[in-house]
Structure formats: C-alpha cells, structure tokens
Amino acid sequence: MPGPADLLxxxxxxxxxxxxxxxxxRQPPGAPPNPNVPTPAAQPVSADPSAAPNxxxxxxxxxxxxxxxxxxxxxxxxxxxxxxxANPPNLMSLYMQMYQRDRASDxxxxxxxxxxxxxxxPAMANAIMQSVGGGPDAGQxxxxxxxxxxxxxxxxxxxxFEHSLPDLAAKTGLSVDALRAMGPQGVATLIERxxxxxxxxxxxxxxxxxxELYKKNHPNAxxxxxxxxxxTGLFVGAQGGDALTQSWLKARAQVPxxxxxxxxxxxxxxxxxLYTQDQKKRQDNVDASAAGFGQYHGxxxxxxxxxxxxxxxxxxxxxxxxxxxIAAVKAQREGxxxxxxxxxxxxxxxxxxxxxxxxxxxxxxxxDYLKALQGKASATTQGDVLPITQALSALxxxxxxxxQYKSMLTGALDAVxxxxxxxxxxxxxxxxxxxxxxxxxxxxxxxxxxxxxVGRGKPMPPDEVxxxxxAMKEKPKATVIDLYRRHGYNTKPIE
Length: 495
Fold this sequence. Notes:
By secondary structure, the protein is mostly helical. Among the domains are: 202-267, no CATH class; 292-453, no CATH class; 456-495, no CATH class. The chain contains 20 helices and no strands. The chain is elongated.
C-alpha cells in the first residue's frame, strides 16, 4: 500500500517492479541482452538533469542517498536474463524482498497514521486508521509462493522443450513450428507411438518362435507346410502373445498336422492349458510315489512274508482249534495272565511253536503295525492300503474256522500283491515289473490313457504294431490292446 514509507526507498531497487518486468518478458536494467526477448521501446529521457539515475537491482545506492535499514536492504538481484524465470529460488528471493518491503512499509505507515490520529478529532482519527488497515494475508502469500514455483517449473520445461525442437524435428520429420504447436505432451505421445510401431508385436514374436520350433522338429518341411502347420491367423489379431497361447503353440509345433486329430488336448489354448494342469498334477503324484516307493514296497513285502509264513505253518489248524491257548497268550500279552505261561503250556501239552504262531498273528494284526504301513504309502496309494489293513485286522479273530481263516489269509495276500503292483504303476515304473501275473494286477488308472497316467505312453515300433495285429487274429482285440497298455505303450496305432 503506498504511503509515506515509500519515501525511505527512493533510489533503491523495487522488487515488485523487477518481478513485473520478468513476468512480462522485459529485460531488467543491468542484465545482458537476451535474443529471445524483444527489446522494449526507448523511454523518454528525464527532463530533470539533477535526477539521480535508478541503479540496477542489487547495485550499491548512489552517493548522498539516504541510508536504508539493514533489515530492509535488498539482496543482489539475480534475474539478469529471461532464462532465470526457470530458477524458482531467484524468483523467491525477489518475492521475499517485496514481501518484507511491503510489510515494513505497512508498519511504518501505521506508525505515521497513529501519530496523526493522536493529534486529530475522533472522527478524523478513525478515518486515518481505517485508511491504513489491512496488511499482507499469510494464506495469500503462500498461494503466491506456490504459483511462483509452478511458473518457474513450467518455464524450465518450456525452455528444455524449445532447445530440443531441432533434434525432435529431425527424428519425427515434422517442422519445428508444427512440433511447437503440438506442445511437449503431444510430441511425447507422437514419439512413443512411432517407437512402438517399429517393434514387432508379442504375437508376431510368438508366431516366429512357433514356426522356428516346427522347422526344428520337421527339418524337411517346406515353407508352405510350415505356414499351414502354424498359420498366422492363430496369433496375429488374436491372443497369441499370452503365456498360455505360447505354451500351446510350442506343443502344437512338435506334432505334424496329420496327427493333430490324435491329440485332442491341442484343440485350442484353453484345452491345452487344462490338459497341462492335469498332467502336472499327475506328475506330482508320480514323483511323490516314486520318492517313497522303496520304503512302501519294503513294507508290503514284509507283510506278505509274514502272511505267507502263517499260511504255510503246519500248526495253524491246531492253533485255530485251541481257544484256551489263544486266550492264555492274549492274557500274557495284556499282562493279566497269572502264573508261569511256559509251565501252563507244558501242563496242557501245547508246543512253543504254537505259542509263537499265535504271537505272530497277533503282531500282524496289531493296530500300531497297520498304522506304520499306512505311513509308508503315498497319497495316491493310500486307497490300496485299506484292503490290506482290513484283511490283517480280520486275521486277529483266531476263533474263525480253519477253512474260512485260510481264505482270509489268501485274501490278505491278494490285497498285498495288488497294492505292490499299483505301487509300480503309481510311481511310473511299469517297465520294472518282471512278473506277468503282477502286471495283470495293475489298475487301469496307472496304464496309458488312465486317469493317473502321465503322458500318452511309449510309441509302438513298427515291428510291435505288426506283431500286435498278428496276435489279434488269434486273441480278442481288447486283450491284445490291454497287454500292450500294461507294458506302457500308446496303443493308438492298433486300436
């Protein structure tokens, strides 16, 4: 606000005028000329020859100028050229000078007004004080500071853009004026699109990879055959760039087109994805079964050896018909038998071999033994252990008639043999079965085409195909196919 305090700043640089000159594009006094800034029209020379020259901002005051308080002295002006608009600290310095000067002026004017009011009538005093009211608002000052920073940043970006226009014109093929009209954001978008157009799309890369893979697997294929096997339409313009489609295409490229009907999993990307997920799950189960195969197979063989020994024991019939012996041995195992068991056996004419057989049967049907066997089976083969544990638990019923009991022993052996055969199948080791009878016990789920088999099976050599067709002349076709499946072959050629 103008007032008497302005007389104290005569001859000093005015920061408000400096800011106005910068924002209007005029060259401040004392600054080097800028070719980008038009030269202002000449100003008339002062008619007063005694008038002191107005020094450049930041320059020392002229001789005989009134002293200025240190707190109100202006810092050296740093806006020597138009480019310094892009330097926010310089603008801030000028703005803070203006702020401090306005604040000091307002306080001085208030002081003068207060003195005048003390020597005036009440009405005049009130009018004097109202005329000097209203100092700088802090919130508005902050908004002004933020605006200055934003303006400086925009100027900096504009200058960088102006400097890069010649290079951008050479890269884009457009004129400098056209690029300037588009602005920084428009030019950035244009360059981004030009760069993207020069790169092959993900779909084209996938198509190229698929064709190269097909060529590698079919070295004698012509270009026409390759294009027919891996057509462009499957990728470009569709979804050929995603990982799911890439996996499908790579698998498809390894199979001749003539065999695609035999591979329903290659029908489309989604079908192949579901197929591969299922195959991975199957492979995980096979790997888990293979990892525990040795321990599980050993446990089954231990069970089989004990059941076979019981079945062949010559004292089995006598033991099954001796309930007193069975009761005495059970009582002794439970700790409830009173007296000497050995003496009791001799007194009742029982043999030590008979007591041992009873203990062997009770050991075999013990819940802890059955639980240990279950712990050796994989998740896939747990279902094969259940019939074994049921059969062994039944063997603990020693009061069963001998003929029925022997049938129970045979059933337990069959359950063990079935579980062992499936252990080979579940672990992917069909080729290691050296017993045709055991091979016949493998569940179809573990054979090629089964729900737990991984892949499609071994390819049948031409001589095996010929032998299978000869065998079909004497045996049912289903029997021959089943035989080859149990050896791990893909029987598609003979079906």
